[in-house]
């Protein structure tokens, strides 16, 4: 334990390094996956082609990818950029399918009526389909976030500082506390990002919270009261209207 | 005025949804297209705002061929109400009503203010404005759908089985509300339903369709009931049976109206009050 107390600064620095390595790929993979997923969802022919090729991305082992990437992109072998690009590719691999499935899950009646009242296909995509796919996208993004944080530790092997450096260093020097600190900090970081995404989802998709509370909707508006997420905890007394 | 000229729609070479359909829908009247499923009634409705384009033939609105109009712009000028309200689940009631004005570039503040006024028009409390559609009852959602259809003050209102998914009591309420609204607003309404009672209640002009978009009969409810064109129409409107085949029975001086199954439908009265009511309806 004493190792942790005397190396708090180191753990904190590596946590920040880790954050800098994992947040851009999460955002980038989302931004790239939206148009790809939309394209996959739009045409029958593109769906198969896009989904199977991005699916293959995930099958590329990470270490060879780290060796090949600098050659392709022209970065130096130890640049953190390699790691960010690799993690983005893995994120895209997971996320494109989620976007395609999320868009496909939007109620056809709602799409039909949106077209009927005069949404152009562009505005319908941004104002109707994408927001309504939101809950599915969020679920996918949470998986991407946690997976990215965990994958980012691999950076240590190719000389990019991250929380993974605590494992490798701990192994080499036989400091068990350092290894454990690395593992725990990685898990905590993943949970923090996951929590941040859930919070963001609640802010951006307020309708998903309120629709679950239909039965217990009070006659007087109480907009700031958070509604419990699990329906089992809501009181079942019917409210007469 | 909306006019269909020899309109045919084939979805595939052997599936004909609508076959050589011609009809004039007079302005400021309610025209009801009624038929069972597969009769092409929804297809006909959707050809007016170009959600479906005909294979051949043309549709004109006030003499302008809709094929010459840009679909998105055309749709934004026509009210559209569908079954299950078709509201956007992620937008509050007030924003749902303001949807089309916002698409047309009306400033947000003005659009919201007008949306609130429309809630009054369709008989909804303004306290519902900030709720999401899923927090409303089916009948309330349908009223919001009507308010949204009216939001750009269109001349034409297309209604695709708008009251099909609500219970009979609420449906009757909504039907009366539509008749009240129509008296105030004077729209050209195209209403699609499979319910002949609804068609007779709402329609100034009723079009009875059979499978494949073939017209069985066009006329006012009175004309159709009095002179059904053929067996199909007679059986579709139920003129030969049940509660529409009525006869009089005299019981001790009182004239009772009885249906074909022997159910008492009511008493025959000949006072001035019912005469005035009948005239009121005819003058609508």
UniProtKB/TrEMBL annotation, chain A:
Q: Which residues cross the membrane?
A: 20-39, 51-73, 79-100, 136-159, 179-204
> Lyase: present as a keyword of the record?
no
Gene Ontology biological process? glycine betaine transport; transmembrane transport
Q: Which UniProt keywords apply?
A: Membrane, Transmembrane, Transmembrane helix, Transport
Ranges of Pro residues compositional bias? 220-229
Q: Which GO terms describe its cellular component?
A: plasma membrane
Give the membrane topology.
Multi-pass membrane protein
Location of the region described as Disordered in the Swiss-Prot/TrEMBL record? 220-241
Q: Which InterPro entries match?
A: ABC_transp_perm/SBD, MetI-like, MetI-like_sf
Q: Does the keyword Translocase apply?
A: no
**Subcellular localization:** Cell membrane; Membrane
- State the protein's name: ABC transporter permease
Automatic annotation (TrEMBL), chain B:
Organism of origin is: Cryobacterium frigoriphilum
Return the broad EC class: translocase
The EC designation for this entry is 7.6.2.9
According to its UniProt record, what is one Pfam family this protein matches? ABC_tran
InterPro entries per the UniProt record, alphabetical: AAA+_ATPase, ABC_osmolyte_uptake_ATP-bind, ABC_transporter-like_ATP-bd, ABC_transporter-like_CS, P-loop_NTPase
Taxonomic lineage = Bacteria, Bacillati, Actinomycetota, Actinomycetes, Micrococcales
Name of the protein in its database record:
ABC-type quaternary amine transporter
Q: Which UniProt keywords apply?
A: ATP-binding, Nucleotide-binding, Transport
The segment(s) forming the ABC transporter domain are 2-237
A GO molecular function for this record? Answer: ATP binding
């Amino acid at each position: 334990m004493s190792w942790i107390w005397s190396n708090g600064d180191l753990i904190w620095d590596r946590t920040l390094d880790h954050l800098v390595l994992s947040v851009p790929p999460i955002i980038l993979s989302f931004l790239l996956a939206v148009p790809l997923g939309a394209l996959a969802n739009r045409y029958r022919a593109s769906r198969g082609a896009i989904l199977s090729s991005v699916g293959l991305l995930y099958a590329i082992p990470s270490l060879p990818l780290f060796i090949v990437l600098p050659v392709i992109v022209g970065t130096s072998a130890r640049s953190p950029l390699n790691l960010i690009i690799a993690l983005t590719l893995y994120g895209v691999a997971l996320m494109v399918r989620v976007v395609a499935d999320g868009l496909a899950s939007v109620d056809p009646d709602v799409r039909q009526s949106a077209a009927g009242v005069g949404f152009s296909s562009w505005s319908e995509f941004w104002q109707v389909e994408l927001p309504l796919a939101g809950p599915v996208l969020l679920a996918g993004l949470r998986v991407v976030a946690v997976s990215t944080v965990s994958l980012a530790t691999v950076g240590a092997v190719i000389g990019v500082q991250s929380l993974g450096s605590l494992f490798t260093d701990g192994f080499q020097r036989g400091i068990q506390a350092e290894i454990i600190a690395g593992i725990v900090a990685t898990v905590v970081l993943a949970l923090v990002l996951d929590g941040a995404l859930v919070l963001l989802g609640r802010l951006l998709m307020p309708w998903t919270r309120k629709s679950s509370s239909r039965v217990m909707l009070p006659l007087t508006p109480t907009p700031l009261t958070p509604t419990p997420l699990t329906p089992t905890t809501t009181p079942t007394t019917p409210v007469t209207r | 005025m909306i006019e269909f000229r020899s309109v045919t729609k084939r979805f595939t070479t052997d599936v004909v949804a609508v076959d050589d359909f011609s009809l004039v829908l007079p302005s400021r009247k309610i025209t009801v297209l009624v038929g069972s499923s597969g009769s092409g009634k929804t297809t006909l409705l959707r050809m007016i705002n170009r959600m479906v384009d005909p294979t051949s033939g043309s549709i004109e609105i006030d003499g302008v061929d809709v094929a010459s109009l840009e679909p998105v712009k055309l749709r934004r000028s026509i009210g559209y109400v569908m079954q299950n309200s078709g509201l956007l689940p992620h937008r509050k009631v007030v924003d749902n009503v303001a949807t089309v004005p916002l698409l047309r570039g009306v400033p947000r503040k003005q659009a919201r203010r007008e949306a609130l006024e429309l809630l009054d028009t369709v008989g909804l409390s303004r306290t519902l404005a900030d709720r999401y559609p899923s927090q409303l009852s089916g009948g309330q959602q349908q009223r919001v759908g009507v308010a949204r259809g009216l939001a750009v003050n269109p001349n034409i209102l297309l209604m695709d089985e708008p009251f099909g998914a609500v219970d009979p009591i609420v449906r009757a309420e909504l039907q009366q509300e539509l008749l009240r609204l129509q008296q105030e607003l004077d729209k050209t309404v195209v209403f699609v339903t499979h319910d002949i009672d609804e068609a007779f209640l709402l329609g100034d002009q009723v079009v009875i369709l059979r499978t494949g978009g073939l017209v069985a009969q066009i006329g006012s409810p009175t004309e159709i009931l009095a002179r059904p064109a053929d067996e199909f129409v007679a059986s579709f409107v139920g003129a030969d049976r049940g509660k529409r085949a009525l006869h009089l029975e005299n019981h001790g001086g009182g004239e009772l109206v009885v249906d074909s199954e022997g159910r008492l439908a009511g008493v025959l009265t000949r006072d001035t009050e019912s005469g005035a009511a009948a005239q009121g309806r005819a003058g609508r």
